[in-house]
Specification:
By secondary structure, this protein is mainly β. The chain contains 1 helix and 14 strands, in the order E-E-E-E-E-E-E-E-E-E-E-E-E-E-H. It has a 7-stranded mixed beta barrel. Strand 12 and strand 13 form a beta hairpin.
C-alpha cells in the first residue's frame, strides 16, 4: 500500500461548530465551552487529527508534526456548516522531536485577515518568556484528542489540568504528569497558564507534542524559548504579520 506524504493530503483547519461529529477531546479531560475558546480549532490532514490556535489576524499555531513544510490548505471560519469563509493557508514548520532540540512547531499563514469577516474575535496570546514555567505549577491543556485509551471521537472539545514535572533545559520540552494527559488528536493544541494573580489573562506556554497515555506524562514544546521566539519573529517579518504576545502591533489579542 502506498501512503501519501502530508503535502499530498488535503489539510483543513476548522471550527468545531462546522462539523460537530468530527472532533475529539483531551485524555481524561472535562468538556470545555467553545465560547470560552473561540480561537481553538481542529486540524485534519488526511487521517491525521490535530488541534490549533489562532494567534494573530492571519496566524495559526500548531505542531510541526501535524503538517509538512510549505503545506497548503484551508481555514474554515464561520458559525455553522452552511455559513463559513474558506481562507487559503500555507504552513511552515520548525521540527525536531528528538533530544536535545525537541522543537515541534508550525505557523500557518492565512491569505487574508480573519478580522475582515469576524472583527470581534479575540486571538490567543503566546508568552515569550519561561518565567511562568516552574516545577509543580499547573497548566491547562486543550485539544480535540481522545478521552480514554483506545477511545473514539465524541464531538466535544475538552480541557485538562496537569502539573509540570520538568522544565526546558537542554531541550525545549515542558513535561507534565496527570491526572490529565495528551492523547491522539491533541497534538498542536496548547498548554495554557495565567500571567497574572487574578487569573484573568491566560497565555500559551507550550504546544502539545507528545503524550504517554498510561502514565499521563505529556510533553509540550515551549514557546518561551529563544529557539521558538527567534524563529517566530523571523517568520512574521518575512510574512509581514504580527503575532499576539510577540508584537505590540498585533490586533484583537485576548489580553489587550
Amino acid at each position: 500500500m502506498t501512503s501519501l506524504s502530508y503535502a499530498d493530503r488535503a489539510l483543513s483547519i476548522y471550527n468545531p461548530s462546522i462539523e460537530p461529529g468530527a472532533v475529539i477531546k483531551v485524555l481524561g479531560g472535562r468538556p470545555a465551552d467553545p465560547n470560552d475558546w473561540p480561537a481553538t480549532y481542529a486540524v485534519r490532514n488526511g487521517s491525521q487529527r490535530c488541534t490549533a490556535n489562532l494567534i494573530g489576524s492571519r496566524v495559526i499555531l500548531t505542531a510541526g508534526h501535524c503538517v509538512d513544510d510549505d503545506q497548503k490548505g484551508q481555514l474554515y471560519v464561520g458559525p455553522n456548516a452552511h455559513n463559513f469563509d474558506a481562507l487559503d493557508i500555507t504552513c511552515d514548520r520548525l521540527i525536531s522531536r528528538m533530544f536535545p532540540s525537541s522543537a515541534d512547531f508550525a505557523l500557518c499563514l492565512t491569505e487574508t485577515s480573519i478580522l475582515s469577516s469576524y472583527p470581534s474575535i479575540r486571538f490567543e496570546e503566546i508568552f515569550r518568556y519561561l518565567t511562568l514555567v516552574r516545577k509543580f505549577r499547573k497548566v491547562t491543556a486543550l485539544g480535540f484528542g481522545c478521552t480514554e485509551i483506545g477511545g473514539t471521537p465524541d464531538g466535544l472539545l475538552t480541557s485538562g489540568i496537569a502539573r509540570i514535572v520538568s522544565v526546558p533545559t537542554t531541550n525545549l520540552y515542558i513535561q507534565t504528569r496527570g491526572p490529565n494527559g495528551l492523547c491522539s488528536g491533541d497534538s498542536g493544541g496548547s498548554a495554557f497558564m495565567y500571567s497574572n494573580r487574578d487569573k484573568t489573562k491566560r497565555v500559551i506556554v507550550g504546544v502539545s507534542s507528545l503524550g504517554n497515555s498510561p502514565s499521563r506524562l505529556s510533553a509540550f514544546s515551549a514557546v518561551g524559548t529563544k529557539v521558538f521566539v527567534r524563529w517566530a519573529r523571523r517568520w512574521a517579518d518575512q510574512n509581514d504579520v504580527y503575532i499576539c504576545g510577540l508584537h505590540r502591533k498585533a490586533r484583537n489579542c485576548r489580553n489587550n
